[in-house]
Design brief:
The chain has about 325 residues and is an all-alpha fold. The protein has helices spanning about 1-15, 25-45, 50-70, 75-100, 100-110, 120-140, 145-160, 165-220, 245-265, 270-315. The chain is about 75% helix and about 0% strand.
Length: about 325
């Protein structure tokens, strides 16, 4: 039992001490990125075989990172950088195999003297990468305009004074192109979304206009916008009993329409005229009609009864009796 405990402790100690035991995907990607940059420098120095070995180590780091977190952004970005650098190294290795011994000797004699970047280019590349870091972390795409201007300044002031294939310059250019493409895609998506929203708003405006016309047909009095004499909901006077039936029909039609509107779920808040018609004037007209029309009916019925009673009293007078 004691031997088992010691074995378990040794195993846990080895696990804790092992490389990458607690390394997360981002950290692994950073380590791989550093290896790739070193490989680029080796490649530029003519040490393509050493660069290839270092890239193989970087590949292992990236694979471990993908295992930890397959969709990690840093891993994905460094993978793309790895693919570009590996392609360059592979091409260099093929050229090395095909080259003659004399050419190989010439290459090896110049391998230790890589072309250095002018100080002004180095400084501007640092500024470029600082701006690109801000774009990546904070999404401040306007910084890409400043980067574009710095690249233009480099080309104007240092053309022919350094190799455009220098790994630091190539890396910065690749980052800029990637982020510019992402910005353009975002702008395109935002423009498409705006067009979609505008189309939806236009459709809402058309529907609101149609609802307004229907409300006005029932609610607008003579001389008002949308007045329809055959549809206007109003209560006739007591002397217009012949219009009671038609008034009742109009009321029923309007109430049916209003129920239909409420069931549609249309949002009227963005259209003040429709909102006023639907939420103020319509319910008020329905309420007033119901109350006033009932009073009109009651008054008319009371008048008829009064006339009947008056006629009966006349019939009961002596002169009408035999």
């Amino acid at each position: 039992m004691k031997q088992f405990k010691w074995s378990l402790m040794i195993f846990m100690l080895l696990f804790v001490m092992s490389d990458g035991a607690f390394a997360d995907a981002t950290q692994l990607a950073k380590e791989a990125d550093k290896m790739i940059r070193n490989a680029e420098r080796l490649l530029y120095s003519g040490k393509s075989h050493d660069a290839n070995v270092l890239l193989n180590d970087a590949y292992q780091k990236l694979q471990q990172g993908k295992t930890e977190e397959p969709n990690n952004r840093m891993v994905v970005r460094v993978e793309k950088k790895f693919a570009r650098t590996k392609s360059k190294v592979d091409r260099k290795l093929k050229q090395s195999v095909k080259s003659t011994p004399a050419a190989s000797k010439t290459t090896s004699s110049n391998a230790g003297t890589p072309q250095k970047l002018p100080g002004g280019v180095k400084k501007r590349l640092r500024d470029i990468n600082s701006n690109l870091d801000i774009v990546e972390r904070r999404g401040q795409n306007y910084k890409l305009k400043a980067v574009e201007e710095i690249f233009a300044e480099i080309e104007q002031k240092y053309a022919g004074k350094f190799s455009a294939e220098h790994p630091d310059y190539v890396s910065a250019k690749a980052r800029f192109n990637t982020l510019s493409k992402k910005r353009d895609e975002q702008a395109t998506a935002a423009a498409a979304e705006k067009l979609q929203q505008q189309a939806s708003q236009d459709e809402m405006n058309v529907k609101a206009s149609e609802w307004i016309k229907k409300f006005q047909a029932y609610l607008s009095y003579p001389g008002k916008e949308g007045h329809q004499p055959d549809m206007l909901v109003f209560v006739p006077g007591t002397s217009e009993t012949d219009k009671f039936s038609d008034a009742q029909r109009r009321y029923v039609a309007f109430k049916t329409f209003y129920d239909e509107y409420q069931k549609s779920g249309f949002k009227s808040e963005q259209h003040w005229k429709l909102d006023d018609l639907a939420n103020n004037k319509a319910p008020l007209r329905l309420k007033n009609f119901e109350t006033t029309f009932a009073d009109r009916i009651s008054n008319v019925e009371g008048g008829v009864l009064q006339k009947i009673e008056s006629a009966m009293s006349q019939l009961n007078k002596p002169e009408f009796k035999s």
